[in-house]
Amino acid sequence: MPTTCAPGCTQRHSKSSDVRFFRIPKDEERRKKWIILMKRMQADNPNRLWEPSYHDRICSLHFISSKYNLILH
Ligand SMILES: [Zn+2]
């Protein structure tokens, strides 16, 4: 199964790209922060914020810094 990012993100995991994927934090507060900062809506329900499941990843394009706990953009 390919690694994918949030709805609407076109990045897919490939060995030739520099894009890295980060796991969603297990910590509830950081997780919520990521979700809010991502501002992604659910693919099948555009009125609701996307909620990643624990196997989802967010790609490095959404981070200002490679330090993955810094702010997303
Ligand atoms: Zn992405």
Which tags fit this structure?
globular; binds zinc ion; 4 strands; two-stranded antiparallel sheet; 73 residues; 1 helix; two-stranded antiparallel ribbon; alpha+beta
Radius of gyration: 12 Å
What ranges have pLDDT less than 50 throughout 5 or more consecutive residues?
none
The residue fraction in helices comes out at 10-25%
Structural class category = alpha+beta
The helix-strand sequence is: EHEEE
Overall tally of structural domains:
1
Kindly state the mean pLDDT as a whole number? Answer: 79
Largest sheet geometry? 2 strands, antiparallel
- Structure summary, number of beta strands: 4
Strand content: 15-25%
Strand order of the largest sheet: 1-4
Number of helices in the DSSP assignment:
1
Could you tell me how far the N terminus lies from the C terminus, measured between alpha carbons in angstroms?
26 Å
**How would you describe the shape?**
globular
The hetero compounds bound to this protein are:
zinc ion
